[in-house]
Amino acid sequence: MEEDKYAKELEVAVRVVHVACALCGRVQERLLETSNDHVVSKDDDSPVTVAEDFSVQATISWLLSEIFGVQNVSIVAEEDIQTISKDESASLLDNVVNTVNESLAFASKYGLQSPETTLGSTEILEAIARCNSTGGPSGRYWVLDPVDGTLGFVRGDQYAVALALIEDGKVVLGVLGCPNYPIKTELLNYHYQHHQTTPQSSLATLDTGGKGCVLYAKSGSGEAWLQSLIDGEKMLEWPNRARLIRVSSIDDPTLATLCEPVERANSNHSFTAGLAHSVGLRKQPLRVHSMVKYAAIARGDAEIFMKFAKCGYKEKIWDHAAGVVIVEEAGGVVTDAGGRPLDFSKGMYLEGLDRGIIACSGVTLHEKFIGAVYASWDSSNL
Ligand SMILES: Nc1ncnc2c1ncn2[C@@H]1O[C@H](COP(=O)(O)O)[C@@H](OP(=O)(O)O)[C@H]1O
Ligand SMILES: [Mg+2]
């Protein structure tokens, strides 16, 4: 039956993303405990984040292979096996082996099976090595960004675990784990406005009724779902504990909020400010790390997400696949700056992307922004 298509894949994807979010939550808590109150840079903590990236990737790859069979699982993912298989990476590998085993020990809480015995480094390396698909126009493959928004992660701020399934070049389902984006919306602003001044460890103690959330959607279903991460001893129940989400109904630019990357290096803030001004936006942009921006649009917490990278930068499919399908199924529109859909069928990159990405809660705002790009492009320096 059509509506059952990908039902098993979606369920498994949601469960494994929960496992990954719990893993990240534990690592981030330890990181923030040891980094006291200073704001860490990406470089300060790169060993931690590299280990975490590999640990999430190995955990998800191992679980998917156990459930669907090694021969049926093909994964495009951000981290490649070369970095971790070098001799000098022995302590990195040890760290990853421990973290993966620790997280898989909790698998039953999420309705998944733990390994019968502790996994060794060979099995972990095999799981990472299996993520060697380069995507393309045919067949079925998973697309994984184990930790999207590394800088947000080390700052105790927003980051995401993103998993999508692509079949014959089309995204068929997407799951976004957002460990620091609670169901209570106002806390998205909390991170943005205070992360420079608030002791980071306080994030761990906020009474938020669940620190984070998971969003998911199946393409063509017209439905996008939101659930909170699991606290304490609770078990993940399926398919309940989720609620339908819709994009914002605001189409008046004066009331709309623009969401964009924190890092100027990743998106041209002055160009997007010019577009926002010409369309008539009045509010300050909300700057957020990672694919949590797509989550914010899908949940109705912001109306526009734009990213205009430097000329020559090629957007990767794992930075967008899960977010795009969730926003579209929640009622939003996502295209490149020329108004064309993003093309996930060309391998690891969004080849042919016209200038930048514009995601909106509805067609009215979207048309205005596409028109603004058209009008202002020639005079821009991009
Ligand atoms: N120069 C650049 N321009 C645009 N995007 C970049 C970039 N360098 C890295 N990125 C991508 O932007 C992502 C972060 O997005 P954002 O700025 O919206 O938080 C990074 O994901 P990772 O953190 O997973 O590496 C990375 O893939
Ligand atoms: Mg990323």
From TrEMBL:
Keywords: Hydrolase, Magnesium, Metal-binding. It comes from the Eukaryota. Signal peptide: none annotated. InterPro entries: DPNP, Inositol_monoP_metal-BS, Inositol_monoP_superfamily, Inositol_monophosphatase-like, Inositol_monophosphatase_CS. It is an enzyme of class 3 (hydrolase). Mg(2+) binds at residues 78, 145, 148, 319. One of its GO terms (molecular function) is metal ion binding. Its EC number is 3.1.3.7. SUPFAM superfamilies: Carbohydrate phosphatase. Its cofactor is Mg(2+). It catalyses: adenosine 3',5'-bisphosphate + H2O = AMP + phosphate; 3'-phosphoadenylyl sulfate + H2O = adenosine 5'-phosphosulfate + phosphate. Coiled coil: none annotated. One of its GO terms (biological process) is inositol phosphate metabolic process. NCBIfam families: bisphos_HAL2 (TIGR01330). This is 3'(2'),5'-bisphosphate nucleotidase.
